[in-house]
């Protein structure tokens, strides 16, 4: 994304990444066409057979057209993803086998077309803090599905919020709820019903802004992603990706809520976690 430092594009990066990205999207298109006759074998658990025909906001979704649009966009654009090709491939390798699935992305930007194309036919929802930025992106890509999030935290409060988590009963792993959880400052308590009602197979955390004191920081996003994963009722794990783990707050909160024991891969500045439902885990986050 261009407005924010971490999930926006950086035009000064090498064109080699653009070429590689086009190859990834082209590969996803090939895979989706190759397996079209055996769609049920790659459906995420509990997916409806008509998944992808319509987005939840009523807009028609054409999976193949979405991927073709993405190839055209990145083949002709001077902007490239903020994540490196090796970092992108970590989530791409999972998404190509999970699609169509429920994919929740913290952050909206010019890279959003890429993420949506990787999950063509599935449900991809972007959560963005800035309403004006949502309007800017959706003007050029109206088929993307995005919600605005109002965060209650600031990066400068990161240490204080760790203490708050330990003292506030409604933050505990035993309770582990988000909707209406006003007492736990780390809980994203005012999201859309869609976020709460769906079970997210894949969650990408590459926002909100977390590089200056007054920014929201990613503390609440990390905590809330952990709660969503623990509350999963279906079979299997939730794949959670956290970018910018070279920063202190991201690393501390990942260790606290996403858990080192759930870390399956780390490449560059991205960590990949596989988080089991709480029924298969202890009463603590880690």
TrEMBL record:
Cellular compartment(s): Golgi apparatus membrane
The keyword Transferase is annotated on this UniProt entry: yes
InterPro entries hit by this protein: IRX15/GXM/AGM (IPR006514)
Biological process, per Gene Ontology: methylation; plant-type secondary cell wall biogenesis; xylan biosynthetic process
MF terms in GO: methyltransferase activity
GO cellular-component term (any): Golgi apparatus
Pfam family, any one: IRX15_IRX15L_GXM
Superkingdom, taxonomy of origin: Eukaryota
Spans through the membrane: 15-35
Keywords attached to this entry: Membrane, Methyltransferase, Transferase, Transmembrane, Transmembrane helix
Protein's membrane topology: Single-pass membrane protein
Presence of the UniProt keyword Transferase in the record: yes
NCBIfam families xrefs: A_thal_3515
PANTHER family: OS11G0490100 PROTEIN
Name by which UniProt lists this protein: Arabinogalactan O-methyltransferase 1-like
Organism taxonomic ancestry: Eukaryota, Viridiplantae, Streptophyta, Embryophyta, Tracheophyta
């Amino acid at each position: 994304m261009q407005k924010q430092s971490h999930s926006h594009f950086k035009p000064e990066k090498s064109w080699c990444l653009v070429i590689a990205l086009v190859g990834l999207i082209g590969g996803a298109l090939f895979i989706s066409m190759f397996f079209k006759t055996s769609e049920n074998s790659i459906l995420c658990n509990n997916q409806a057979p008509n998944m992808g025909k319509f987005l939840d906001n009523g807009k028609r979704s054409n999976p193949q057209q979405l991927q073709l649009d993405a190839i055209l966009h990145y083949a002709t654009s001077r902007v490239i993803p903020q994540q490196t090709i090796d970092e992108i491939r970590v989530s791409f390798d999972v998404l190509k086998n999970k699609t169509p699935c429920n994919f929740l992305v913290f952050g909206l930007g010019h890279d959003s077309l890429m993420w949506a194309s990787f999950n063509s036919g599935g449900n991809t929802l972007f959560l963005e803090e800035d309403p004006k930025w949502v309007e800017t992106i959706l003007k050029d890509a109206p088929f993307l599905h995005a919600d605005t999030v109002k965060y209650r935290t600031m990066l400068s409060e990161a240490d204080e919020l760790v203490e708050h988590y330990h003292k506030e009963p409604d933050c505990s792993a035993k309770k582990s709820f988000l909707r209406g959880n006003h007492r736990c400052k780390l809980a994203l308590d005012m999201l859309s019903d869609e976020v709460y009602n769906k079970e997210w197979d894949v969650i990408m955390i590459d926002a909100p802004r977390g590089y200056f004191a007054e920014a929201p920081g990613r503390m609440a996003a990390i905590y809330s992603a952990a709660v969503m994963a623990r509350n999963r009722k279906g079979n299997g794990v939730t794949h959670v990706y956290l970018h910018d783990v070279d920063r202190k707050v991201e690393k501390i909160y990942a260790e606290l809520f996403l858990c080192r024991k759930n870390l399956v891969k780390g490449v560059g500045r991205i960590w990949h976690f596989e988080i089991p439902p709480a029924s298969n885990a202890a009463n603590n986050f880690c």
